[in-house]
Write a structure and sequence with these properties.
It is built from 2 helices and 7 strands. It is α+β, with helices and mostly antiparallel strands. It has a domain of 82 residues: 2-Layer Sandwich (hypothetical protein PF0899 fold), CATH 3.30.2320. The longest helix is centred in the first third of the chain and has 19 residues.
Length: 122
């Protein structure tokens, strides 16, 4: 279950943001997961809950955003959203495509609470 290792790294990242902003706690974090990342969001969320216990990130709400597969065709130079079930160029159907995006797993934003009433967007 590689999601637990990823969850630990994600916890470290959000805690770095909290420390950088002198935040008391982290209320939410947005995570982008690419279609080809091979990451199960439910497992990542569970791992994050475990990894963040007893830290400023405990209780942080994880929000997930999908990053679709995008490909570029080497035959016709088109770029567009790829189809996971039918690999190839979305325009000409050619098989010589390269992945432009869709493999990523990245922390997009973190909402921190500095103890005041409003939260900040980091």
């Amino acid at each position: 279950m590689h999601e637990l290792a990823l969850a630990r790294s994600l916890t470290e990242l959000v805690l770095e943001v909290a420390a950088k902003h002198d935040a008391q706690r982290i209320s939410a974090a947005v995570v982008e997961i690419g279609d080809l990342a091979g990451v199960d969001s439910q497992s990542l969320e569970f791992g994050f809950q475990v990894a963040s216990q007893g830290t400023r990130a405990q209780g942080c709400q994880l929000l997930f955003r999908r990053a679709p597969l995008r490909v570029a065709c080497e035959s016709c130079a088109a770029e567009g959203e790829g189809d996971l079930e039918r690999p190839g160029c979305p325009r000409c159907g050619g098989e010589r495509v390269r992945v432009v995006s869709g493999r990523q797993l990245r922390l997009v934003s973190v909402d921190v609470d500095d103890g005041a009433e409003e939260s900040e967007h980091a």
